[in-house]
Amino acid sequence: MAEALRVGIAGLGTVGASVARVLNEKAAELTRQCGRDIVVTAVSARDPKRDRGVDLSAAKWFDDAVKMAETADIDVFVELIGGDEGPAHASVKAALEAGRHVVTANKALLAKHGVALAEIAEKKGVLLNYEAAVAGGIPVIKTMREALAGNQVTRVFGILNGTCNYILTRMEAEGISFDACLKDAQRLGYAEADPTFDIEGHDTAHKLSILTSLAFGTRIAANDIYMEGISNITQADIRAAAELGYRIKLLGVAQRTESGIEQRVHPTMVPTASVIAQVHGVTNAVAIETDILGELLLSGPGAGGNATASAVVGDIADIAKSRPGFQHAPVFGWPARELKPYKKAQMRSHAGGYFIRLTVHDRIGVFAAIAKRMADNDISLESIVQQAAGPETQAQKTVILVTHETTEAAVRKAVEGVTKDGHLTDKPQVIRIERAE
Ligand SMILES: NC(=O)c1ccc[n+]([C@@H]2O[C@H](COP(=O)([O-])OP(=O)(O)OC[C@H]3O[C@@H](n4cnc5c(N)ncnc54)[C@H](OP(=O)(O)O)[C@@H]3O)[C@@H](O)[C@H]2O)c1
Asked: Which residues contact 300 (CB under 8 A, 6 or more apart)?
């Protein structure tokens, strides 16, 4: 049997401790599958005394993850510390430069330094595996990097943040407000004490930037993502969406267009009958649309110790199965040096259907004025419905419009016009509609 694969794990928190436990508990199966043992020979975290719920006594302890990356007797460095700089970045870079394979679950790190790290890995002939960094346990990286060879991806989109999907699911199921839902999610541990990163779309954007690179062979451009979070989604939107046959999801979407590549994260209306609309709670999903295959949807647990450990262990097992001297697949599907510059499509040229909800004064002529603003901007309407507001707001009405395909620029101009006309009593709401099967 080949020599054991020696693994060093830096970070023994939710994911790191789960990885160590799975490697222990599944040692016999992994040996059978990989044809060699996988042993944890080194570990690093901040507190050497903390009980991690797994026996790590055989592994050498390192206070310094960078030192472990450079000097430990390991073949694979597993980074599960987190953060886009500091010890995570320094240790991953050091491990690759020392010619060690790296496995990481760190989307923030890859969104910022992924291409530079991939260049080092490819120069050194080692693997940089990161299945857990996007959609946790869902094997989307492998699918895009390996299983879809020959396919040209036209669009990739997904529910990439469990916290947002949990909140939107409960808002719809229970009719409660965004704020009430968020508080409850925090109490139950589904949302962080500071939820900004999740609910404003940053976490989704990090993951999307990696998928974009895999889909289109472009350099990662995490700072070039149009981003809107879910905090302004109201019950009125959710109810109107349901009546129109849609459900609201926070999607990350990357799409090839004539003017470049769109990367956008925003609340989106998807048809209630589509497969992605059935993805509820903390579950994640990624849809990949290609010229040969059509639309493929992968869904499953996007976070949590076990689900994430499953992806990390899969990455480690791939390294155990790889043979020395064998050329590895490029980190982002194309050699890092050949990744093309990212050509950004302007959001204003985004084409699609739109949902527009306007709260207006209940006055004669308002409805006609809104319809005229739409027509003036060449927006063709699928429907326009006027609803009376509740008894406490009798002086107002709600107007809900659904457009046929139009452009972001036209919608913005039309809504600006309606606002200027002085008919609105509240901020207008605009939600993009996404085609999905
Ligand atoms: N949690 C998830 O569901 C999930 C899902 C997908 C991806 N991820 C990614 O996985 C990574 C880890 O997440 P997590 O949830 O496991 O985080 P976590 O529970 O906060 O664990 C972080 C670990 O890093 C250790 N650490 C901190 N600073 C260190 C340093 N300077 N040197 C060595 N170790 C250090 C901590 O040590 P102490 O324990 O001693 O404090 C802790 O064990 C992140 O990149 C995250 O984005 C997590």
From this structure: 135, 136, 137, 138, 283, 284, 285, 307
The rounded distance, in Å, linking the Cα atoms of 129 and 252 is 22
Q: What are phi and psi of 141, to 5 degrees?
A: -70, -50
| Catalytic residue, candidates 107, 207, 249, 397 | 207
| Cβ(61) – ligand 1 distance below 6 Å | no
For the residues 20-49, what does the mean pLDDT come to?
Answer: 98
CA atoms within 13 A on the CB side of 284: 27
d(CA 413, CA 288): 32
Kindly give the distance from the C-alpha atom of residue 22 to the centroid of ligand 1, in angstroms, as a whole number: 16
Q: List the beta bridge partners of residue 407.
A: 351
| One-character DSSP codes across 6-43 | EEEEE--SHHHHHHHHHHHHTHHHHHHHHSS-EEEEEE
- Is the CB of residue 14 below 6 angstroms from any atom belonging to ligand 1? yes
> pTM of the entire structure?
0.96
Q: How far apart are CA 13 and CA 400, in angstroms?
A: 47
Return the structure tokens found at 16: 């790191």
Q: Is the pLDDT of residue 83 over 80?
A: yes
| 218 touches 211 (CB < 8 A) | no
Q: Name the helix (H) or strand (E) containing 168.
A: helix 162-174
Kindly state if the Cβ of 136 falls inside 6 Å of ligand 1: yes
| Residue 396: how many other CB atoms lie within 10 Å | 17
CA 327 to CA 335: how far, in whole Å? 12
CA distances from 223 to 2, 85, 206, 334 (A): 44, 16, 9, 21
Q: What angle, rounded to 10 degrees, do the helices at 178-187 and 162-174 form?
A: 120
What is the CA(89)–ligand 1 centre distance, in A?
13
Distance CA 161, CA 204 (A): 6
Whether the pLDDT of residue 389 is over 70: the answer is: no
